[in-house]
Amino acid sequence: MFRNKAFSLLKLIPLMSGQSNVAYKFIHPAIASPGHRCHRSVEHRQRYTMCPDSAGGRPISAPQTKVMAEEELPGVLILDIGGTHGVLENLAALLKKHFHLITMKEFLENKKEMSKKIQSVFVFECRPAIDRELLESLPNLKVIGNSGVGVDHLDLKMISNFGVKVTNTPHAVADSTADIGMTLMLASARRLVEGCQIAISPDTRYFAVDWLGVEVTRATLGIIGMGSIGYKVAQRARAFNMRILYHNRNRRRKEEEKAVGAHYCEKMEDLLQQSDFVMLVVNLTPETHKLIGKKELGLMKPTATLINISRGAVIDQDALVEALRNKVIRAAALDVTYPEPLPRDHPLLKLNNIIISPHIGTATVQAIHMMAEEAIANMLAVLNGQPIPSEVFPK
Amino acid sequence: MWYHKPVIKEELLQSLPNLKIVASSGVGIDHLDLNLLSSYGVKLSNTPFVVSTDTADLGMALMLASSRRLVEGHQMAVSPDTEYFPANWLGAEVSGATLGIVGMGTVGYKVAERAKAFEMKILYHNRNQRNKEEESAVGAIYCKKIDDLLQQSDFVLLSVVLTPQTQKLIGKRELALMKPTATLINISRGLVVDQEALVEALQNKVIKAAALDVTYPEPLPRDHPLLKLKNVIITPHIGSATEKTRRLMMENMMESIQAGLTGLPIPNEVL
User: Fold this and answer.
1) A200 in B contact zone (CB under 8 Å)
2) Average pLDDT in chain A
3) Residue B72 falls in the annotated catalytic set
């Protein structure tokens, strides 16, 4: 099932004398420019109380490294195993190969003993939240390994002040997120969700012949944010004969542009005015916050579609609601909103020219597994004093 | 003729002594009796090439939407009951998976071109093998036996023409040969699939899911079991339903009609 992907990103390297832990070298599949992507909206709050039906604390048998017993492996803190927000069970098994797994519940029940053991935290879907209180209670914490590329939910400066490193997983997320961008673009253009509803509705007696979508092939795609994910989107869109424009902090090399037929737009306005589809693939920073607002939406074609696979806060959501209501743009397709999920009475949920997916950019069996592997490799590199594949620094 | 209407029956042909040509929209002609038309000396044209890219695009859309559970996901995102997005809600990856294309005509080939950009492994089954350059341009591997394709594919996409030979091409046997993790995508004609066998296969998880732009009939009766299955997405035959393509179809049909009326060689004539 996991075909051509560089599935096993961890490669065992020989133990060196004096090294107490098994060391791993991270192999990543392709050279890609770092793109720090965000995973959850800033207001995400951690719950220290466990869900009643969580499977927290139950040990899962997994093969142990022959070299050491479980307790001698470095401790990694996670929110929980299983349940609604915990680490998936098969990922926990992966972690257990290299770490002594400590859930938040176990930590809180026995802070004195556990706090010293925790050298790393595995942040999965933004949990556990990393606040000052937690950092103060973990004297031996060296690294926070984030599953996912976005780190907008982490206070990088505060964490850095505690001498703790932060790592993310830019390589594991790229294919699946690019795929979701393409999925949203195609589904929106061809009115797929609406179409499904018509096909199965009890009221449908015939299929109307004048029911039309818009073309993707040969249309113009404007990619805002041409990092690893943006570039993979361009590679896919090129096969649809799309004309590709892009806007980025820095221009890509000529060979890279040529390989996907992408034209650089130094001014974002030029991209907005010419594109049939505008796709947002930036990371969330103070500079990209509300990057797309009323002015930008006004510059877009009235026949254009906005697709967001970056972070909800990159768009001024109120401006988007207005633009969609007044047909300033044709439609939107969002994998991300602010917050997630939206309040149930939010106007975006009531519009019929919008598709919203529940932040599933990396929600595939393969990607989730690769993200855990990449995070593990990063955390081990920090703990073993080796070059760190994907460290994130505060600005 | 737009969307198979008006229906061409003998009675109609008898009542139109000066009828020279029937121009049919779209590429499929399974709804027409070619022998009947020919016996009245009426020519026939279709619009084969202009529909290809839109239909290929829709095939890709169905494959991606099915594998990433987009329709379900959208419903969750907008449902009044949703309080949070669960962590263990996962789809399957398209990038790097194996796509088996059954019917490598114009549409099938365009699907292969698109799928290649997703680094998919591409297998295909066709009446005739394509030439080496065409195969290597999309990295497609020929499967002389459809069974080989069915057994190895994560996604099986049907883009054949409907003929007596392809009717019920995919039945109980073929579905059982597919992986239990595989998805069937149909952008050809509903009759290419044995629908009852498909319902059973989906109910019993013999295959994982199906995504159909075409069924038999269209629309399905409102109590049809396919409408109730969670692992199916159905679109209302929208393979060529874009403004640009419909306009191009009309232009093609105009050209064919004009040629037919003036006795010139007819573009897109069906013989």
Assistant:
1) yes
2) 87
3) no
CB contact under 8 A, B114 and A239: yes
Mutation test of the interface with chain B: which of A41, A186, A260, choosing the one with the most B Cβ atoms within 10 A?
A186
Of B65, B78, B218, which is closest to A183 when you measure between CB atoms? B65
Q: Say if B271 falls within a structural domain.
A: no
* Residues B45 and B73 placed together within one structural domain of the fold: no
B178 lies in the same domain as B83: yes
Which domain, by its residues, includes B14? 10-49+241-262
Asked if residue B124 is part of any domain, the answer here is: yes
pTM of the complete model: 0.89
pLDDT at residue B4, as a whole number: 82
Read off the pLDDT of residues A212-240 as tens digits, 9 standing for 90 and up.
999 999 999 999 999 999 999 999 999 99
Residue with tokens 């599935």, as numbered in its chain:
A7
**A212–B contact, CB cutoff 8 A:** yes
A358 and B85 within 8 Å at the Cβ level: the answer is yes
Which amino acids of A are annotated catalytic? 311, 340, 359
Q: Do A217 and B57 touch (CB under 8 A)?
A: yes
- Of residues A176, A16, A393, A59, the one with CA closest to residue B118: A176
User: What is the pLDDT, as a whole number, of residue A28?
Assistant: 43
Asked, for residue B252, whether it belongs to a domain, the answer is yes
Name the residue in chain B with its Cα closest to that of A355. Answer: B74
Pairs of residues, one from chain A and one from chain B, whose beta carbons lie less than 8 Å apart: 200
